[in-house]
Amino acid sequence: MQAPGVQVYDDARLGQVGVRLLTPENTNLFEGSFSLMHCAVQGDTLYRGVYAVVLFPVSQPDRFISLRYTDTNDRNEKEREIGIIDDLKVFSQEAQDMVRKSMAKHYFERRIIRIHKIENRFGLLFFKVETTRGKLDFVMPWRGDRAEDYGSSGKVLLDAFDNRYIIPDLSELPEADRDLLASFIYW
Amino acid sequence: MTIMTSKEQGIPAVLCFRRIPDGVREQAFSLGFSDQALLFAVRSDLDLAGEPAEVWTLVAEDRIAALKAGEPRESPVGPFLLKDIQKVRSYQKVGSAFLQVKMDGLYVDVARFSNAERELFGRVARHIQRRIEGQPLPESALSAQSDMRCEQCGLPLPGRKAQCPRCRGGRGIFARTLGLMRPYWPSILLLFLVMIAGVCLDLLPPFLQKTMVDRVLKPEPGAEPLSGAESVRILLMILLGLVVASGGRCLLNIFIGRTTSVIGTRITKELREKLQAKLMSLAVEYYNRHSVGSLMSRVLWDVDYFQGFVTQVAQGFMLNMMLVLGIGSMLFFMNWKLALLVLLPIPFVVVGTTFFWRHIYPRYYKVWDSQSKTAQLLSGLLSGIRLVKAFSQEDRERRRFGATAGYLQESRRSLETSVATFNPIMGFVFGLGGLIIWYAGGREVLQDKITLGTLMAFFGYMGMFYGPISALSMFSNWVTGFLSAGQRVFEVLDATVVVVETKDARPVSHMEGRIEFRNVTFGYDPYAPVLKNVSLTIEPGQFIGIVGKSGSGKTTLVNLLCRFYDPLEGKILVDGVDVREMKQQDLRRQMALVLQEPFLFRASIAENIAYGRPDASPLAILNAARAANAHDFIARRPLAYDTKLGEQGAGLSGGERQRISIARALLCDPKILILDEATSSVDTESEQEIQKALTTLCRGRTTIAIAHRLSTLKNADHIFVIDEGRVIEAGTHEQLLEKQGVYYKLVKIQTELTRLEVQ
Ligand SMILES: Nc1ncnc2c1ncn2[C@@H]1O[C@H](COP(=O)(O)OP(=O)(O)O)[C@@H](O)[C@H]1O
Ligand SMILES: [Mg+2]
């Protein structure tokens, strides 16, 4: 019997109408023409030119990967989903590499590890930072909508051209850098 | 020819015409490129893996390839022959984008670039597409002026096509705030004079005390002794002087306080009004980007800083400056050696206050942030209260609020405890300064070098000296805090009005109601179009139906017509005039809009119906309600038309709310009536009633009805079927049925559904 006050959810029923899960058993990933990722699903067809999108890029960066393709038969070239990979690690190494490569293509973010200088001129913030890819300068309008929360303790900064600069965890910045940032970006 | 755009940020984007760039020449030659056949080369800042690199995409008359400069061993992308390419696109991903070509039904990546270059590559993609289609290629189309940088100085702009903050020569926040005070300059001048008088009065008491001590209480040994009566007379005189000085000071303080408060509150009121007016004038788009909570804190709290500004400048900076100068000169005038000792603690004071501002002031920001977050949470919570209850999430919301309240508490605690620690320590340092004077000054008195009165006066002045000093060293930093609040306020005031009204906008008094969309392309994000090259014409007085799946862009079409947004490309004409050239108010006055989600204000039903026409007669209101089939349910309420509605129309059903908003639109007697799924929550029977009324009312006015229930559109003069931001079918109901296309399918599905309903 069900304990009083404890709600039991029948997720299996939702699963019947939900997303399609791709597993190594029903899915074959391989490199096809133009070195693009192709994907054959059992009982379905072959999809060419497949790419991967992470569905929880902040909270679950390694799981729930949606495989998608551009439907060139459709008049509007719609993007469609083939299915979802819950855990990539159960796939073969080659398949994993291919999906990871595709994910790396989907996201381009610079990760900030040090902030050397922030200068406010004409309502623009001129940043001098160090990223995982080296030193960098960028210019960001000093506006509330240009810096947003990233997960529970990080920030995303958007520069004047919408390039993305990520501080995954503010507490990992050196204290002086954090104070410097907080004196401009405190929201 | 080589064109370089500004080097302000990162690697410069470069275009080359008719010459293969240096780093890739050899590779290019080996792939069959030549300078003569090259149309252009464009440089991107990333390689396909996303590493910073110098990559050249070469576009020749017959082929295209991407080569990495200086790395001949790395295999190039391509070359692809243009004749194999069906299509070219710039494909936006997260943070970067790709130039892709379609071959054999597949999109293949050619080059990758950061968002900074997507404007350029958008042009490149269109350019190559034209080449494939055999259209002429004007080179100037590639190197056209950027919307993202200032034409003159290359500075990145705060928004697309925004004014350059450097070249506009905008004044700083400080100067602008002083500008706000300009209307009050006579009062401010008076204030200034009064302050000088006040400082003089402040300087008087210690001086009188000195005289009192030295001449009356403890006359100097050498001085000629005074008679008893004489002493008392002088004592009284001095006391009277003290009373006058402090009384006068009191009066002046009252005056200064009242005046600054009058000016300060007036300026803040004006600013609040300006902010509100600005918020009203900002395009709908602004509110997609900014939280209501943060906007509210600006209007409510940040503006208060401006009152502080008046107080600070009047009572803070100027007054303290004059006091420091006045007292300082008195001290040096009385005894310069002691005066030098007085200056001894000053370095500590300055160091201390600098420390304060560096480490403690940022905590003020946190307090602001926590306040604005709390306001945000609360306003979301209260307006969504029914949702919270429906999903029984009260506990979670309580916890969530608890966490925010905790953040507010923590930020305040951290601020106030550090202030509470700092102030006594500074007090102690000042105290030490006093002790030095006691020692040095006491010795001087004992050695009869100075009189006791002088020492007393010295202490009097000294007590008044450190306060202004520390206030002054805080001032520059107070400015920092003020600047950030000012920045938040001016950020709103300066927000680019995306939908601008041109100065010579035409007033429109009469409208026929002829509407034309001419090749309109629009996206909320300019790089992801929602409407794609839409062209359609609506004749005056026509009843137009628009159908399409949800998300296909129907509401967007309406948003553009009402000019909540402007199209990126193309034009919208009303009576042959571009809507951008019309006065916005005139345009909207001729239109009435019934939204998908009706919004009702917290007011009576009658007031809600009359919102667009507050002076409407009661009879007109009744007629409008009757026509919208709302009259009966309103009449059944105990307070009928005077029924007060709750927040967002609480107390009414969805269909009732929609009917009230239809009544509101009808009452305005618009030339163009727009119904955006206005009857989606109304039952079929009421809908038919409304439909009947509409057929009468719509005669002579252009009506655009967006509807899911296709039966309502049967009598439409013309129906447009929208899909994925394009008009894919158009015609009358019968024509579209005959065509057996998308519309036909939709109708078939719906009739099957109705049959089910009937059974
Ligand atoms: N304010 C907005 N910001 C960004 N995208 C939006 C906004 N409003 C609508 N969209 C997107 O534009 C597309 C068309 O929306 P809309 O015109 O509202 O469709 P509908 O045909 O259902 O009325 C949708 O994909 C929607 O997600
Ligand atoms: Mg809609």
Describe, in short, the structure shown.
The complex is a heterodimer of chains A (187) and B (759). Chain A is an alpha+beta fold and 187 residues long. Chain A has helices spanning 11-17, 93-106, 175-182, and strands spanning 27-31, 37-41, 46-54, 63-70, 79-87, 110-121, 124-131, 134-141, 147-150, 154-158, 164-167.
Give a structural overview.
The complex is a heterodimer of chains A (187) and B (759). By secondary structure, chain A is an alpha+beta fold. Chain A has two domains: 11-106; 109-182, Immunoglobulin-like (Sandwich), CATH 2.60.40. In chain A, 16% of the residues lie in helices and 41% in strands. Chain A contains three helices and eleven strands. Chain B is of the alpha+beta class. Chain B is built from 23 helices and 19 strands. In chain B, the strands form four sheets. A six-stranded antiparallel sheet of chain B has the order 1-2-3-4-5-6, covered by helices on one side. Chain B has a six-stranded mixed sheet with strand order 15-16-17-12-18-19, with helices on both faces. Chain B is extended.
From the 3D structure, determine the CATH topology of the largest domain in chain B.
Answer: ABC transporter transmembrane region fold
Shape of chain A: elongated
- Count of runs of 4 or more consecutive helical residues of chain B: 23
Number of domains of chain B: 4
* Net shape of chain B: extended
Q: Could you state the order of secondary-structure elements of chain A as H and E?
A: HEEEEEHEEEEEEH
| CA-CA gap between termini of chain B | 75 Å
Q: Assign the CATH superfamily of the largest domain in chain B.
A: ABC transporter type 1, transmembrane domain
CATH architecture of the largest domain in chain B: Up-down Bundle
Unreliable runs of chain B, pLDDT <50, ≥5 residues?
A: 1-13
Parts with pLDDT < 50 across at least 5 consecutive residues of chain A: none
Give the largest interface.
A-B, 44 and 57 residues
Largest sheet of chain A: 6 strands, mixed
> How is the biggest beta sheet of chain B arranged?
6 strands, antiparallel
Multimer state: heterodimer
Class from secondary-structure proportions of chain B:
alpha+beta
Top-tier CATH class of the largest domain in chain B: Mainly Alpha
Mean pLDDT metric of chain B: 80
What would you call the structural class of chain A?
Answer: alpha+beta
